[in-house]
Amino acid sequence: MPLHPPSLAAAAAVIALLLALSVWLASWRPRRDALPATGLGLLGSAGAFACAAGVGLMPDWTSEVAAPVGQSVALSAYTWGLLRLHARAAPWQNLTVMPALMGVLMVFLADLPTARDLSHDAVLIVQCLVLLIWSQRLALEHGQMHRLLMLGAGLGLLINVLHGGHVLQGITPTSEPLALTRAEAWRLASELVLAFVPACALLLMSREDRELALQRLALRDPLTGIANHPAIAERCVSEVEQARRSGSPLGVVLIEIDQLPSLRARQGKDVVNEALQHTAAHLAERIRRSDSVGRYGPHAFLLLLPNTPTPGARHVLRALRESMLDAPAQGSGADVLPLSISMGLWCGVPNPRDSAEALISQAATALQAAQEAGANRMRVAA
Fold it and tell me: Is the residue at 223 inside a domain?
């Protein structure tokens, strides 16, 4: 049974419209993902398919102008969604340029079918190329779903190039309503690919991004914003294994705020929380990129110093203690909270019998010795 292009376009229009409505309902609450843009892209595709389905029933300008503009709107929306998903600057005004250009070209070339078709292909090729370049660039930084988006943009680009080639060969539409020329088949394939493949890719990418955000949230301490106990403990296990394999020294440091017991007794839990937040931010801002810090207990922080021998670790920790004295915490009122920290350090190359827990325990013993010696002290485990 031969294909009936208007019926196929009508079915695609209904599917795209239902998907657009579903996506917009899912993105009702404001958030940074690609759902609103995906819904807009599907709506543009639905309009393009509806215009294609109405050939012979609606004015010619709907299929010759509105349908190409709908396709261009969809591609601009998908590009906007990709950039928005990754917090890239994407002013919506810039994304109206290509649909506007498409509309102008379709109107002014209405009496020149070959030039109109070639211009239609050229605009879509440029938009596919832009989407492909951004997808490839961001794929180096993010997850696997970009490959599906790259596939959709690449297929759209190729199909429109092939369609343009058939237009240049002078292949004209057939007068048989149930028959498709090769050029018309390429056009229909382009519309289907560019409508649904990028949309599916962006939906999957939005889900992947949300899952990664939840994973990151699960590994963060809600009070201080740095790594929580499970995250920093797992990181310590990884660093110990890496140091053992490479034979490089590792520093394992336990840190506590000296004034915490007195603050809790005199000023209460809120001030203690402010002191913990200040100390966590101070440590996170001043450690090296290769280092890791996390909240290991209610009052303790765990700092990991990979590839750091004992003299280097001493230097790093001395600088941290001095900078804490120079940067007192600002309380919720006008009060200034001068804080100091004590540290216990284990440093060396782990041997096969050293577990992460054992090294942390030795650092805890050194921390206890530092606290017994007074405030703002550091001791090294024997």
Answer: no
